[in-house]
Amino acid sequence: MSNASQQGSGSQQGADDFDVVIIGGGPGGYGAALYGASAGLRIAMVEKEKVGGTCLHRGCIPAKELLETAHVHQTVLGAGTFGITTDAPEVDWSVTQSRKQKVVDQLHKGLSGLIKQRKIETVAGTGRLESDHSVTVELSDGGTRTLKGDAVILATGSVPRTIPGFEPDGSVVCTSDEFLELANLPRRAVVIGGGAIGCEFASTLADMGADVTILEALPKILPGLDEDVAKQVLRAFKKKKIDVRAGVKVTGHEPDGSGATTVSFGDGETIETDLVVVSVGRRPYTDSLVDDGAGVDLDDRGFVTVDELCRTSADGVWSIGDCIATPQLAHVGFAEGICAIGDILGEHPVPVDYHAVPWAIYCKPEVAFAGYSEEAAKEAGFDVVVSSSRYMGNSRAQIIGETDGLVKIIAEDQGDGTGGRVLGVHMVGPWVTEQLGQGYLAVNWEATVDEIAHYLQPHPSLSELFGETVMTLTGRSLHG
Ligand code: NAI
To answer: What is the pTM of this model?
Structure first.
């Protein structure tokens, strides 16, 4: 018997009764819905806008499409080194925007079709959890409907945080929501916050030809990255002429009335810009999500509190994705959805291991990692051996003309200076977000250096660098 039916309303279901009611149709919610429906559960999913959520409509997908356009711009600019000459390339922003939208629309159409095909009932409106697993929906086309689930999953995601004095104003100040819909490419931009979103937007704008400044409050951008990887990003950003100002506080801005503004920061410094992008984190979107009688606890930042299986404080209610305090990544939302459905089915799922999830940051150069950084492994008490290899020595990297970056692997020291279990894999360079897969598996499968070094990598390929770096940790090597 499933956990849901142990706690739920029984097997005779009416039109408003479901095995699972999910509030929120982003990656967490729709992932749980698709996975649950594939296991035979009858599912309703409440969504107030479009299925796909932030990731598909205002996040990952449009942001990466724009990054790709910026990369194409740089490729064309550098085509002369391959003997291919072109006129000076120009960015036609309206075409750029419509291509991005086409990709989003195509994916939305595919997802909507899949949801229908799995017989998941999508209810258009805003859902609120009351007591006894009742979800009241303010329907988008008027009226209300009450759904009842044997189990309920809260998956309402997150929204951009703003800072006082820098609220989005529809012209010069924006968050990621508005940035992805910009009508014009700015000539100058100030990005406040040097986290994943800030660095991706800064990279996009700089590679499109804008003058970009990042203002970061902490002493360095991308805090939490392995030190050697962070240095590579910083060096590449300098090459692109991104002005990185870390350890500074912004104090306000003064629009000039003609489309520009002057941002004040640090010790009385100012900078004039055409666009301010605020990327200082995202807060959980749990406003009015649960009634007091529902018994679901939120923490003081508004995150739904959950245990390791994503169970909330209320029996039969789970919460997943950006509205719980775990890494705000779409693929973490998918994993949590799978975990929650497994628990609802009584299958004793393995909890998500948050310390070893794959991270992928799509600025140029790309960053990808899983597991401990060198500093974190040492802090956790491991004796480690470390090996780094640079793309400069990799044949495929030279062929494609992108030789900046490295692969760094951290393994447990076997006592003789050779590596045992792989603890962390950190990459920066060309297409590393596509190369992390085997590093992620190595860390999570608790593979040893000797086991991995036995296997072949295609030649010539960028992924050879991973294989060579692992082999170096055995004490022997080919090119490394
Ligand atoms: P973040 O929390 O990763 O970074 C925000 C940055 O802003 C921090 O470095 C913080 O120190 C800085 N900051 C905060 N207040 C500031 C202020 N007043 N002035 C200057 N700097 C300030 O948040 P971000 O980049 O907005 O991303 C939100 C979430 O989405 C994160 O969890 C992120 O990991 C995730 N995400 C991940 C992506 C990826 O992995 N490719 C892409 C996009 C988002």
So the answer is: 0.95
